[in-house]
Amino acid sequence: MTPTSVFIRRLDHAADLPLPSYQTTGAAGVDLVAALPANTTLVLEPGARDIVPTGLSLSLPSGWEAQVRPRSGLALNHGVTVLNAPGTIDSDYRGEIQVVLINHGSEPFMIHRGSRIAQMVLARYERVTWSEQASLDMTQRGAGAFGSTGLDIAGTP
């Protein structure tokens, strides 16, 4: 598979920080790090949310988006997640990527310069045109909503 080339700009306040990178050969996402000022700690108190700069901006190809997603280890171990997950970076956005984090944990969470705070996955998308109809085709599920497809083997919807 030939990788798609994406233009990235490291902003001045992230000059010494690493570019996003895949941590394993099978990883779908790249890590984003906090571009906080040196010797600064952002304390995310339980229940609090804040925006964390990454010091990066992108020029994505047309038909691509970047999705900012939580890091599973932060969610499991600390209750820290991306509030608007997945956050979407559109192909025409050229501003700094910033991550909205929330602490659902019971302890304050410390973020330092260079802390890995989120992951970013790039994905292709297609634009559609809407064709309004008076009715839609019938399916087995129909209009069944949450839990309408039955129970799992444990009896949970």
Automatic annotation (TrEMBL):
InterPro entries membership: dUTPase (IPR008181), dUTPase-like (IPR029054), dUTPase-like_sf (IPR036157), dUTPase_trimeric (IPR033704)
Annotated keywords: Hydrolase, Magnesium, Metal-binding, Nucleotide metabolism
Cofactor requirement: Mg(2+)
Enzyme Commission code(s) on record: 3.6.1.23
Gene Ontology MF: a single term: dUTP diphosphatase activity
Keyword set includes Transferase: no
Name of a matching Pfam family: dUTPase
Positions bound to substrate: R71, S72, G73, N84, T88, I89, D90
Limits of the dUTPase-like domain: 17-150
Gene Ontology biological process: dUMP biosynthetic process; dUTP catabolic process
The reaction(s) this protein catalyses: dUTP + H2O = dUMP + diphosphate + H(+)
UniProt pathway annotation: Pyrimidine metabolism; dUMP biosynthesis; dUMP from dCTP (dUTP route): step 2/2
Family, similarity comment: Belongs to the dUTPase family.
Function: This enzyme is involved in nucleotide metabolism: it produces dUMP, the immediate precursor of thymidine nucleotides and it decreases the intracellular concentration of dUTP so that uracil cannot be incorporated into DNA.
HAMAP family hit by this protein: dUTPase_bact
Protein name: Deoxyuridine 5'-triphosphate nucleotidohydrolase
